[in-house]
Amino acid sequence: MRTNNRKGFSLIELLIVVVIIGILAAIAIPKFANTKEKAYIAQMKSDLKNLASAQESYFADKNTYASLADIQLAPYSWTVSGGAQVTPSVTGAAGGWSASLVDNRVTSVGATKNCGIYAGGVTPPNAAVTAEGVVACW
Predict the structure, then answer these.
(1) Which residues are CB-contacts of 118 (< 8 A; sequence separation ≥ 6)?
(2) Torsion angle defined by CA atoms of residues 19, 24, 26 and 29, in that order, rounded to the nearest 10 degrees
(3) Do 56 and 32 meet the contact criterion of CB atoms below 8 Å apart?
(4) Of 120, 80, 121, 123, the residue nearest 102 (C-alpha)
(5) What is the per-residue pLDDT for 31?
(6) 20: three-class secondary structure by DSSP
(7) How far apart are CA 65 and CA 93, in angstroms?
């Protein structure tokens, strides 16, 4: 007497599972790639808000706003979180200050890679920055 004792999966069943996993991966991977760039933008916004606080501290001490070189010195010690990948631009004067950051890690076509902020009677870093003291990205 012969018994048919089948253990395991057939080749067709395994192939179907692999195809389903491939479809799910093809859907999920682009969603996660965009998340990294959103984190870079959030980091730039945070850096610019920290710069605003440092500029106000500098103004309270010296009655003028700081340039990039001045704001990076102690005790203010403002730095950019992205390191060499982020290019800062800061101008300061008695009447106000303006700053922008460019993050070179953002590589998607048409993606936002610049953010800026300003305060006082100075020219905003870009037309997208419309409100004083509010970070805007373009």
Answers:
(1) 96, 97, 98, 99, 124, 125, 129, 132, 133
(2) -140
(3) no
(4) 80
(5) 80
(6) helix
(7) 5
- Over 80: is that where the pLDDT of 132 sits? yes
Cβ neighbours for 112, distance < 8 A, ≥ 6 positions apart = 41, 106, 137, 138
Q: pTM for the complete prediction? A: 0.79
**pLDDT of the residue at 1:** 60
Contact 69, 59 (CB under 8 A): no
Tokens of 51: 């710069």
Render pLDDT for 84-123 as a digit per residue (tens, 0 to 9): 788 999 999 999 999 999 999 888 878 889 999 999 999 9
For 3-20, give one letter per residue: b (16+ CB within 10 A) or e. Answer: eeeeeeeeeeeeeeeeee
How far is residue 129's CA from residue 118's CA, in Å, rounded to a whole number? Answer: 8
How far is 41 from 122, CA to CA, in rounded Å? 24
Q: Kindly state the tokens that stand for 47.
A: 């850096």
